[in-house]
Amino acid sequence: KSQAKRFRPSDQQTTFDDVAGMEHAKQELQEVVEFLKEPAKFQRLGAEIPKGVLLMGPPGTGKTLVARAVAGEAGVPFYSINGSEFIQMFVGVGASRVRDMFRTAKENAPCILFIDEIDAVGRIRGAGVGGGHDEREQTLNQILSEMDGFESSAAVIVIAATNRPDVLDPALLRPGRFDRHVTIDRPSRDGRVGILKVHAAKIKLADDVDLQDVANGTIGFSGAELKNLVNEAALIAVREGKNAVDSDDFDSARDKITMGVPREEKMTQ
Ligand code: ATP
């Protein structure tokens, strides 16, 4: 029973209002929300909802955030685990952890089961990396068989996230498993304005700050980087003893962040 406790849902409520931009992803996920709110409505008509949704996109683009928001919108529990946790475990524990996790989810349906960085455990099998990692393969096989084992009427939606969809074992993507794919890219200019608004609402802004300008100067930033930018600007303002966070603080924060990020990383995607 101690195992089940690890999968206690988080009580923190997140909704689509906390997620700026990515209208396309929110639209795709709205159907999952409707299903979790009222599974019977779908079941009456024999409509099958996908069991598994794969969110694909670069780090920090809000995959975890939007998955959490689906649970918040539907008012259902959100259970989450990181794929890398499975492989850090003792031999033989990965597969039983998977069983335990699915059992807990089924007992608490309707709910969301979120697997972040699924590529850690879901890399193509038999690739020989690390000498044919048996433990990892067993864990992956257990995930596959759990997904096959529950009916779509079970009202457990498994959402997985990855920034390496190219390395995933194709078996994960087959019908009845993670067959619904949602791509989440780095935000557009409008997306950046929206994300900046969400996070700037939490700080005291000076009148000279124009978030449109900030968005123009942050091409290529992810949501997580924009959140960090707002916070860095606020920290600089505090350090300088200001009453509000002004546009100079945003400039300094941006310089600090862009100079701190290795060039390579900025270039990929
Ligand atoms: P990773 O792949 O690194 O796990 P992720 O795609 O899951 O990243 P999150 O962890 O959800 O990204 O994003 C980190 C934080 O960045 C979020 O908690 C949120 O505060 C902020 N953020 C990211 N995208 C958005 C967005 N679209 N709107 C508002 N905030 C965002």
Would you kindly provide a written description of the structure presented here, covering whatever features stand out?
- The chain has 269 residues and is an alpha/beta fold.
- The protein has helices at 2-5, 23-37, 39-44, 63-74, 83-87, 93-107, 119-122, 134-149, 189-200, 211-216, 223-239, 247-260, 263-267, and strands at 52-56, 78-82, 111-116, 156-162, 180-183.
- The model is unreliable at 1-6 (pLDDT under 50).
- Adenosine-5'-triphosphate is lined by residues 19-22, 59-65, 116, 161, 163, 195, 198, 223-224, 227.
Pick out its properties.
269 residues; alpha/beta; five-stranded parallel sheet; disordered N terminus; binds adenosine-5'-triphosphate; ATP-dependent zinc metalloprotease FtsH
Query: Outline, from the CA principal axes?
Result: globular
Ligand roster: adenosine-5'-triphosphate
Summarize the main sheet: 5 strands, parallel
Strand neighbour order, sheet with most strands: 2-3-4-1-5
- The helix count comes to 13
Terminal CA distance reads 43 Å
- Show unreliable segments: 1-6
* Strands, count: 5
Helix residue percentage: 40-55%
What is the N-to-C succession of helices and strands? Answer: HHHEHEHHEHHEEHHHHH
Indicate the proportion of strand residues.
Answer: 5-15%
- Structural class, by secondary structure, is alpha/beta
- The chain-level mean pLDDT equals 88
Rounded Rg: 21 Å
Function: Acts as a processive, ATP-dependent zinc metallopeptidase for both cytoplasmic and membrane proteins. Plays a role in the quality control of integral membrane proteins.
Subunit structure: Homohexamer.
Binding site for ATP: 57-64
Subcellular location: Cell membrane; Membrane
